[in-house]
User: What shape does this take?
Amino acid sequence: MIFLVAIELKLVLELPFWLSYFETFVGEIVVMLVGIPVMLAADKAINFTKTNECIIYVFKRYIREIGYAFLLLWEKVAGLFIKKVFRNLMTCKKSIKASKL
Assistant: This one.
């Protein structure tokens, strides 16, 4: 990712590639060094594990409900489609029989 940012800086701002690469790399290291203690403190305060379990439970529940709704909708749509196709086939058979007579 740093490589792509350095290329973009080279193309857009015409900065030297290796200097851009180095500055971007150092910036990422600084962000990580600042972010690690912040995230550890936030984890102690919020307890991400328990929060994630709750989020996953709710997500799975709604995905299941959406899946059921989709299946019911599909059953209804497919049923209507099959009825329509069958009705058209019967109409065609009747018209073919009528034309033969």
Remarks:
- The chain is about 95% helix and 0% strand.
